[in-house]
UniProtKB/TrEMBL annotation:
Residues 58-267 form the Putative glutamine amidotransferase domain. It comes from Mucilaginibacter sabulilitoris. Keywords: Glutamine amidotransferase. It holds the Pfam family GATase1_like. It comes from the Bacteria. SUPFAM superfamilies: Class I glutamine amidotransferase-like. InterPro entries: Class_I_gatase-like, GATase1-like. Coiled coil: none annotated. This is Glutamine amidotransferase.
Amino acid sequence: MRAKKEFRSKEEHVLYLGDWVFHVGPTFIETPFGTETKDADLHFYGERLTEALEYLVDVTPLANWELYRLEPGKLEEHLEQSVSLIISDVEAKCFHLYPSFFDRARRENKIVTFPDRLNVIKEWINDGGGLMMLGGWLSFSGVQAKSGWGRSSLKDALPVDCLLIEDLVESSAGFTAEVLVPDHPVVKGLAWDKFPPIFGYNEVNEKPEGQVLVRIKETGHPLVVVGEYGKGRVLTYMSDPAPHWGINFELWESYDQFWQQSLNWVKKKN
């Protein structure tokens, strides 16, 4: 498990939401009366992406459950200190409510509301923040359309439209990339001819105001789309920056440079 920093060593900061998982098992069935589970492990799949970005900035990673438990106002504090926000494999509903809302022992006889955190993010982008929205089973529409981003208020800030049905496109043979705008600062100078096969991606439709920089060669679907919202910038990468879809992607010789250039673009350094 990755240790979280207690201090920052760089001037700029990125908040990275998602890409944590609990592994439980193996599970043994040795009797008709029950099962036995041995071992559990908390793993951060975003370690490789974090290492790539920490050449430029300090990164604070938060798991989905940590995001969900943030007290009202805490996300705003994180955003105020951040030049960029990464959302990767996070359901939109993780941003809603707050567990103590359901605690009857803490309820008072009064109406309770607090700011919609997705509207907070949208306003933060509009004021100049940079968002990187990355793919996965819980991104965009996601598995069985559970992710809910196409029905969220943040959809207005994205340069793509989410499907309202499951959007996972997968193949054990893998998919390759085709660059459409080779001179764009996000993709310029990278070894796209050596881009390794990725095992899946989220299908989306680019908006008229979005610019498709890279597409899936085999299907023509967008892979990297960028756009602007107010004073801010948004980059969407429709596959996973980490395993399982990205298990080969992490080995790409331009992996670090791609994410560094992406970060520099959303925070308007190029």
